[in-house]
Amino acid sequence: MFKAILPAAYIAIFAAISVPLRAQTDVQNPVPVVLEEVLVTAQKRTQILQDVPISISVATAQDIADINAFSFTDLVQLTPGVSIFPGIQSASIRLRGVGPGFFSVGSPQSVVVFVDQFAQSQIGTVFSTLVDLERLELLRGPQGTLYGINAPGGAYNIITRSPSMEGTEGYLEATYSQYDSSDLAATDLRGAVNIPLVDDQLALRLAGVYRDDDGYIENVNPISPDKTSGGNDTKAVRAKLRWLMSDTMQLDTIANYQDLSQYVSSFNYQGEIPGTGGDTGIPAEYGKFKDRKDYGEFVGKVDGNIKDISIHWSWEAGFSDVDFLAMHQRFDNSSNENRKPFPNSNEIFNIDLDYKITTYELRFSDVIGDLSYVTGLYHFTRPADGVFNVVVTDTEVIGDSSSEDTGNAVYGNISYAFTEDWELGLGARYDDIETTMEGDIRFLEYVALVDDKLDFDHLSWSVKLSHYYSDNLTFYASADNAFKQGGFNPLVPGVFALSEFFPEIAAFGREVAAFEEEISDSYELGVKGLLLDNHLRFTLALFYQEFKNHQIGFPGEVPALSPLGGLFNNQLGNADEVLTRGVEFDVTYVFAQHWEAAVRGAYSDPTIEDWNRRLCEAGEEPVLLPGQAPFPDQLFCPKNGKPLNALPRWQTNFQLAYEHDLGSNWNFATRLNWTWQSKPARQTLAESNKPDIPSVSRFDENKSRFDVSVVFFEPNLGVELKLWAKNLTNEDLNVNPAQFEDTQTLVGMQYPGREFGFTAIYTF
Asked: Which segments within 605-665 are labelled E, that is strand?
């Protein structure tokens, strides 16, 4: 039935391109004639966006609704310069081109996601919970002197709507969408209700979401019982209870529950393996990125659920504002995957994970004349338990591990306006963290036991100088030192415990099992302004950041020719020196009544300056580690001067919005949204022995995407009807493309193809 309206949808949407969609601030309010002030709480106090000496992107709940975002990955349109690896079991965020290239449960994050001021244990569980939001703040650069948990690369600050004492209200939202390339579809239901319980004292707000997404990549592997990938099932509910204990005291209690399932597969190169004369056995017509088909070796899904409860007690004391925050969160995850990468092979992966985090934070803050400050104490524990069973062909490996991070920190930040036009900010943070790992690996007749501990401590600092040239124009400069703890690669220590049986493993040493802490120095220059009688708002930032011992993912150094080789080939290690630099900008312009345009973009150039861990290419002379035997498939060469990753250097977004009164209280609105990214920086393998592979060459293209929406809404009835399309030109845009440094595997996330949807919202 839905396909029957597709031709009409095409006509309506293309007609609407000449009259693009409104920038809604609320369903009842049109695009303003002038821009309103944007308030943020990035520095733990309410400030005007132009006054904050940090590169910040802010999106309201309506901004997110306007781009029809149903997952965290959609937000990159509003926050250029961010790349997100989605997932339940493993997920990561790269900001300014830098972030973990490989992530596992328990690995430290560069960019921390906060929801209502609480750091999330697994950011993969945040991706499907964009429900009942108030706003989103993206803070770029180190933020450790302002937040309890360390955020060395930046912070996503998500604020959900709080309970209100004003009355009962809420909304219901239903969406149905279908992918143009197939019969696959998605259904999304979400809503919220606010209920005052005791007059001026107690109120409850409930929010929930249900999403059933078939996925958009067809798996043509005949052994696969699941023929799609990219889909997910999501059920989540959140309850927030607010108690106004007195005129100066408040207690917020929040409980969350999420149940998530994700269908997964992989992208593989098809046909002849370059340089070997061998063949994968996979028909060459399968798995083309352009057709959104895959001959996926993964057969199965990843399931996870998360439960948490938190309290936030705040007191406006006479001497200071006092906040106490406590949270306990538990994440349970299991994956059951059958792999058949080649016709005559078989791999089975069964993994169960239990991950917890408990946090306590005591914070003091205040504004006293020209001086403002925030300082606090922070404590966390992060225990993680994992059990896995792996079968490769006829060989079985069984293992379990337990790890725990325990950390304490003290942080503080002070700002002082020493003249009417100048303000100086100073910050510091001290971290003391202990990481332990215990476990065992059972392989044939061999048993390895693991018991190890690492300790980390560091003093970070921050200096910020702001010049308020006028009420609407601010210049700033900042310098920051940041720290990210080290840790263990999961179960890799057990591999080296087997070194008495396999001498070739012993040559690589304990340093492969563990990775060191990462230290960075960051410098930023910026300007922010509100000009043309509040019709134009802009931000511009230049940044430069150096990393020592940058934590980076790379192929494992356990020799593939050993009995355990290949099972632990994704690890975190340390690149000696990494450098990134770039520019970020955001401009919003109300150029006529009811018309608004916005353009935002980011450029980053992350480069490896010094590192000797890259698989050698043809003709290169390898660098052998002390005691290392020259295994043919494990020869390492310097990667100095090479791009850090295969991400695009430029990302831009352009939006145009318009609204028109139709009479009889009905309004019409439309929006055009165009996103463009440059071709990714090529990895070394694509420069050498894979230049002619079509699947690889597709990574080397500039990509763009068009989204459009048409909206009819009646404020008095609280009714909004929206017809929308994503990726109208059906671009095969790749997110985070990468090539494993072998001869046949490609990895990447794709945007869905052309997608049409209808959304109905009722507000009461």
From this structure: 607-610, 642-643, 650-663
User: Quick one: pLDDT at residue 255?
Assistant: 95
Per-residue 3-state assignment (H helix, E strand, C coil) for 94-124: EECCECCCCCCCCCCCCEEEEECCEECCCHH
Can you tell me the distance from the alpha carbon of 684 to that of 681, in angstroms, rounded to the nearest whole number? 10
Q: How confident is the model at residue 632 (pLDDT cuts 50, 70, 90)?
A: very low
* Residue 605 near residue 97, CB atoms below 8 Å: yes
1 contact partners, CB below 8 Å, separation of at least 6: none
Helix (H) and strand (E) counts in the chain: 6, 41
pLDDT of amino acid 748: 53
Nearest to 632 by CA among 564, 563, 559: 559
Q: What is the largest CA-CA distance in the chain?
A: 83
Tell me whether residue 251 is exposed, middle or buried, using C-beta atoms within 10 angstroms of its C-beta: 0 to 12, 13 to 18, 19 or more.
middle
> CA 561, CA 462: separation in Å to the nearest integer?
48
Hey, is 14 helix, strand or coil?
helix
Angle ∠(195,159,121) on CA atoms, nearest 5: 110
- Cβ neighbourhood burial of 326 (10 Å; 0-12, 13-18, 19+): middle
Q: How far apart are CA 384 and CA 573, in angstroms?
A: 20
The DSSP-derived string for 675-719 is EEEPPBPPPHHHHTT-TT-HHHHGGGS-EEEEEEEEEEEETTTTE
Q: How many residues does the chain have?
A: 764
* Paired strand residues for 596: 657
Higher pLDDT, 76 or 272: 76
Can you tell me the mean pLDDT for 282-307?
Answer: 61
**What are the sequence ranges of the domains in the chain?**
2-763
- How many other C-beta atoms are found inside a 10 Å radius of the C-beta of residue 33? 12
Tell me the β-bridge partners of 662.
none
Long-range (24+ apart) CB contacts under 8 A made by 627-632 are 627/506, 627/507, 628/507, 628/508, 629/504, 629/507, 629/559, 631/504, 631/559, 631/560, 631/561, 632/561
Give residue for tokens 């990214």.
Answer: 677
Q: What is the mean pLDDT of residues 350-372?
A: 89
Do 602 and 584 touch, CB atoms closer than 8 A? yes
- Kindly report the backbone phi and psi dihedral angles of residue 183, in degrees, each rounded to the nearest multiple of 5, phi listed first: -90, 10
> Looking at residue 556, what is its pLDDT?
52
d(CA 137, CA 119): 14
- Domain range 2-763, CATH class: mainly beta
